[in-house]
Amino acid sequence: MTEENENQSFKYSSGEHVLIRIHDLWKKLHFEVSMNNYYNWDVHLDRIWCELVNLMDDDEYDKLYKDYQTIQVQIKEVSPILNALVEGRDFFPVKKDEVNKIAKQYSLLMLKEQTIRKIQRKVEKKVIKTNTADWD
User: Fold this and answer.
1) Are 72 and 50 in contact, with CB atoms under 8 Å apart?
2) pLDDT value at position 91?
3) Residues 107/77, Cβ–Cβ less than 8 Å
4) b/e code 33-70 from CB counts within 10 Å (16+ = b)
5) What's the pLDDT score for residue 8?
6) pLDDT confidence tier of residue 12, bands split at 50, 70 and 90
7) Which one, 7, 9, 33, 85, has the greatest CB density within 10 A?
8) How deeply is 119 buried, as exposed, middle or buried, from its count of CB atoms within 10 A (0-12, 13-18, 19+)?
9) What are 47-56's pLDDT values in tens digits?
10) Residue 10 and residue 8: Cα distance in Å, rounded?
11) At CA 46, angle to CA 42 and CA 51, rounded to 5?
């Protein structure tokens, strides 16, 4: 195998493994969302972002990071991330501002997830295109 073919083989293997790790993170994320665990939802989205960064070139990263960072700033404004309205509350009533904060956090996490899914779609197209080279 020539050095060029070895590099292409490594690129394919590396990209494929990143996509497998991302798939596993999405599965974990779905569980956390279903359990109203907003904090872990946010953490898993960050982990998926970090995996996607491995597949981006510098120009792509600079553009996509701006989109990602915009949402991060909005999430920071409604921090800390709450997991559920009933967490540690015993039988005390929930305050209206807590309900509003949870609703805002949910909306922002949904926006963050949608943004990451769009980024993933762009990056995956590049990986798939790169991996269909005629090196084998």
Assistant:
1) no
2) 58
3) no
4) beeebbebbbbbbebbbebbbebbeeebeeebeeebee
5) 47
6) very low
7) 33
8) buried
9) 999 999 988 8
10) 5
11) 150
Measure the CA–CA gap between 121 and 49, rounded to whole angstroms: 12
Q: Where are the beta strands (DSSP E) in 72-118?
A: none
| Nearest residue to 75 (alpha-carbon basis) of 35, 115, 48 | 115
* Amino acid symbol at 122: K
Q: How far is CA 97 from CA 21, 26, 102, 105, in A?
A: 37, 30, 9, 12
- The amino acid occupying position 97 is D
- String of DSSP letters for 3-15: HHHHHHHHHHHHH
| Lookup: tokens for 9 | 């083989």
